[in-house]
Write a structure and sequence with these properties.
This protein has two domains: 169 residues, Rossmann fold (3-Layer(aba) Sandwich), CATH 3.40.50; 99 residues, Helicase, Ruva Protein, domain 3 (Orthogonal Bundle), CATH 1.10.8.80. The strands form four sheets. Strands 2-5-8-1-9 form a five-stranded parallel sheet. A hairpin with a 4-residue loop joins strand 3 and strand 4. The chain is α/β, with parallel strands linked by helices. Helix 12 runs antiparallel to helix 14. It is built from 14 helices and eleven strands.
């Protein structure tokens, strides 16, 4: 089976169990192909946890869910050294971050020390305990979730950590058609649980070899020099948009980092690859721009006073920058 066919089969498998969240499913696969981490923001009950759990069912690798709470300690993520009284030695016991797919549920409920432990894992693909550094698996993806409704008792994520997320995806409620399909799926699953017949529609697991090969295909997708310049201009304009209007210039305080430029390139390529194309078009860059850049832009007080969001700022930039 080709890499394209394998990923399309995985996508269909996820969409069977995660209904009405096509964007979330798409972004999960793009994060997998672009070798990055995902921050998902949405109200409770929108299948955030379910999405990555179903993804893990279709990928050869292990999955672990971590519920972030205010009393969480760094060792609860990284692991710790256990004393063995038999021989007086210490043995390192790995924590949940040593899994391939990690769900950091309600990430903004944990304090700064826990965030810094997760930051090293996401940024360096390694964990340091004491004086020893342990490498993480080659296939390593963190999907973190945030609840936008209840903000009491939360710790805002620092900009350095936000920048480590490939994308910040916002999801909303499904429409009435999807809601009906969700209701019917819930009934089917309840029936399966009662009858002990188990869920139907299992998919053959994709090996990490398939995923790494697909990532190489994504990197090899053609992007013209003109389109590369267009991508760079979008990122540069988030830092200094004065050429595209004084209004845009007064809306932004800090723009996207070079890491944002790299992320937009990788995500645009992955989006084109999932569409079955061997080249990147302007629509791939435009489609991915908000998810890649929204968490990397700090708006000014003027923008906040006017009710301007990062998404509005990015869309205005795209509207005003000439497409090659």
């Amino acid at each position: 089976m080709s890499n394209q066919a394998a990923l399309q089969q995985l996508k269909q498998h996820i969409q069977h169990y995660v209904i009405g969240q096509e964007q979330l499913v798409d972004r999960l696969l793009i994060a997998l192909l672009a070798d990055g981490h995902l921050l998902v923001e949405g109200a409770p009950g929108l299948a955030k946890t379910r999405a990555i759990k179903v993804l893990s069912d279709g990928v050869e690798g292990d999955f672990h869910r971590i519920q972030f709470t205010p009393d969480l300690l760094p060792a609860d993520l990284t692991g710790t050294e256990i004393y063995r009284p038999q021989d007086g030695s210490f043995v390192f016991q790995q924590g949940p971050l040593f899994h391939n797919l990690v769900l950091a549920d309600e990430i903004n409920r944990a304090p700064a020390k826990v965030q810094s432990a997760l930051l090293e894992a996401m940024a360096e693909r390694q964990i340091t305990v004491g004086s020893v550094t342990y490498p993480l698996p080659d296939l390593f993806l963190v999907m973190a979730t945030q609840n936008p409704i209840e903000q009491e008792g939360t710790y805002p994520l620092p900009e350095a950590q936000l920048d480590r997320f490939l994308m910040h995806v916002r999801i909303d409620y499904p429409d009435s058609v999807a809601e009906r399909a969700i209701l019917r799926l819930a009934r089917e699953e309840a029936h399966d649980n009662v009858s002990e017949s188990g869920p139907a529609g299992q998919v053959s697991k994709i090996s990490s070899k398939h995923i790494f090969s697909a990532r190489q295909e994504v990197l090899d997708i053609y992007m013209s020099e003109a389109l590369e310049e267009y991508l760079i201009q979008i990122v540069m304009a988030t830092r200094n948009p004065v050429a595209y209007g004084d209004d845009l210039n007064q809306w932004v305080q800090y723009g996207a980092s070079p890491r944002g430029c790299i992320a937009l390139d990788r995500c645009a390529r992955a989006h084109a690859w999932l569409q079955g194309r061997d080249y990147v078009g302007p629509e791939d860059i435009q489609t991915m721009a908000c998810d890649v850049l929204r968490h990397r832009i700090i708006l000014s007080y003027e923008a906040e006073a006017e009710g301007i969001s990062a998404d509005h700022f990015i869309k205005e930039l795209i509207r005003r920058i000439a497409v090659p």
